[in-house]
Amino acid sequence: DADVTQTPRNRITKTGKRIMLECSQTKGHDRMYWYRQDPGLGLQLIYYSFDVKDINKGEISDGYSVSRQAQAKFSLSLESAIPNQTALYFCATSTSGGDHEQFFGPGTRLTVL
Amino acid sequence: AQSVTQLDSQVPVFEEAPVELRCNYSSSVSVYLFWYVQYPNQGLQLLLKYLSGSTLVKGINGFEAEFNKSQTSFHLRKPSVHISDTAEYFCAVSDGGGGGNKLTFGTGTQLKVEL
């Protein structure tokens, strides 16, 4: 079984709809991250959480919100989706100590029409 | 603030030829450096990482990278590529100090291996 899972893997929605992307991990890591990937831009950090009660904005948090329901679950919401939020979204995890390596989920491809 | 520059957006190369993917970084503190690979329709997978010690780092699938502090570079190399190496490669830097585990990624280099 995959250590970091994301649901759904693909989603097509319409402008103005509320969307939630979910991430779960079985690695026991306390830190979790949400990124978006756009062609030619690499990965940009949206939000990150160092534990259940510690949530922080990343580089591009406008238009997004997150919820850390448990150590193993970190959800990303788009309150009112817009077309320029069409992208590939990745969840990642890491430990609090160690070497800062992050472990990535398979991604969610979101299309906003 | 730290940043990563990958100068080459695409690198075409013939199978069995050597390849170098370039990465330069800027940071005011000591850093940890990473190379990740993304195969089509998949997530990112770690190729190798530099934390400290030997500046030549060996990773999976025959890749290696050399940390050069004076040139602030961490170029990725492979002496002989295979068709299966076709993928996008991302260089990333993390603040090795108290900034948390946040990674800053480059914009990626698409490696296309041709017959």
What characteristics describe this protein?
heterodimer; A: 113 residues; 7-stranded mixed beta sheet; 4-stranded antiparallel beta sheet; B: mainly beta; 12 strands; globular
Write up what this structure looks like.
- The complex is a heterodimer of chains A (113) and B (115).
- With 113 residues, chain A is mainly beta.
- In chain A, 0% of the residues lie in helices and 58% in strands.
- In chain A, the strands form 2 sheets. In chain A, strands 2, 4, 5, 6, 9, 10 and 11 form a 7-stranded mixed β-sheet that branches. A 4-stranded antiparallel β-sheet of chain A has the order 1-3-8-7, with no helix packed on it.
- The model of chain A has no long low-confidence stretch (mean pLDDT 93).
- In chain B, the strands form 3 sheets. In chain B, strands 2, 5, 6, 10, 11 and 12 form a 6-stranded mixed β-sheet that branches.
- In chain B, β5 and β6 (44-50) form a beta hairpin.
- Chain B is globular, with a radius of gyration of 14 Å.
- The model of chain B has no long low-confidence stretch (mean pLDDT 91).
- Classes of the chains: A mainly beta (113), B mainly beta (115).
- At the A-B interface, β5, β9 and β10 of A face β5 and β6 of B.
Sum up the overall morphology of chain A in one term.
Answer: globular
Global Rg of chain A: 13 Å
The count of helical stretches of chain B stands at 0
Assembly of the depicted chains: heterodimer
Shape of chain B: globular
Mean pLDDT of chain B: 91
What is Rg of chain B?
A: 14 Å
Q: Can you count the helices of chain A?
A: 0
Strand percentage of chain B lies at: over 45%
Tell me about the largest β-sheet of chain B: 6 strands, mixed
Give the integer mean of the pLDDT values of chain A. 93
Derived structural class of chain A: mainly beta
Order of helices and strands of chain A: EEEEEEEEEEE
Low-confidence stretches of chain A: none
Give, in order, the helices and strands of chain B. EEEEEEEEEEEE
**Which range does the strand content of chain A fall in?**
over 45%
